[in-house]
Amino acid sequence: MTITRIPSNEATSEPSEATQAPIKEEIQFKKVAIAIAGKTYYVNCPANEEASLHASVSYINNFALNLKSDMPRIGQEDLLVLCCLNLYEKLQEQKASNTNERLVRQEADALLEKIIKDAKTMIG
Fold first, then answer.
1. Taking residues 21-48, what's their average pLDDT?
2. Distances (CA, A) of 87 to 2, 59, 91, 93, 106
């Protein structure tokens, strides 16, 4: 997706053709206006991903507004940098959690296979 920032005094106008990313012929893109922490941005979004985009925007907007409520004097750029850093940390924590869950599942599977093998040996 390509994001183009629209200054707040031009929030209702659309970006010029020169600011848009080239569109692939096989994928249909849709220009979608989104708002994060009071600023409007235009995103060239694959038409079939618009619902996902809106869900992402909702999550990020709420996250940014929560950060801003803790630091009311923070500028937009600093707010978005902090938002990115915090979300990246959450992503890394989730990856670590997924890795740990996968390892526990593998250990459980190996133990179950050993129990089944031992049971078969005892039975017959």
1. 86
2. 19, 10, 6, 10, 29
